[in-house]
Write a structure and sequence with these properties.
Blueprint lengths: L1 H20 L10 E4 L2 E4 L20 E3 L5 E5 L2 E4 L8 E6 L5 E5 L6 E4 L4 E5 L5 E6 L7 E6 L1
Parallel strand pairs: 3-5, 4-6
Antiparallel strand pairs: 1-2, 4-5, 6-9, 7-8, 7-10, 10-11
Length: 148
């Protein structure tokens, strides 16, 4: 039952993410956002080589157990370890071509910006529990850390 609910929740989030990312505006204006004084302009998507593998998860969702050493950001999604130890220093690798963040939904626990292609670290909370996080630049990106 939990697995069915998780799949259903993932599908619902994927629909919201895809709807939020779609452009229904026919105007010729370019969307832009300002991050640290740098203008970001929407670029058209180009086809990818067939030799590249695409993530099998919905956009923005995290995959528990996908990374044994830390959080990996790729394809606008998080891959997280199945669980981490309290107080553990966790590596975050951003494999995307844009800046992302790993920001705790609980204010003040952790908030790290990771430039494209860079690696940063966070210290996991000392209390066991489940901690959700998001990307401040791309709100549809969500992840969960389980501290045991």
């Amino acid at each position: 039952m939990k697995r069915i609910l998780a799949v259903l929740a993932a599908l619902i989030l994927a629909v919201f993410a895809l709807t939020a990312c779609s452009d229904n505006n026919d105007s010729s204006d370019n969307d832009s956002a300002d991050h640290d004084g740098m203008a970001m302009t929407s670029m058209p998507m180009t086809s990818m080589p067939t030799s590249m593998s695409m993530p099998s998860m919905p956009l923005g969702m995290s995959t528990p157990g996908a990374s044994s050493m830390g959080i990996v950001i790729s394809g606008f999604g998080y891959s997280t370890p199945e669980s981490v130890m309290p107080g553990q220093v966790l590596t975050i690798q951003n494999n995307d071509t844009v800046e992302h963040s790993v920001t705790s939904d609980t204010s003040g626990l952790f908030n790290e910006d990771i430039e494209a292609g860079e690696t940063e670290t966070i210290t996991v909370p000392n209390e066991p529990g489940t901690y959700t996080f998001h990307c401040t630049y791309h709100p549809s990106m969500r992840g969960t850390l389980t501290v045991k």
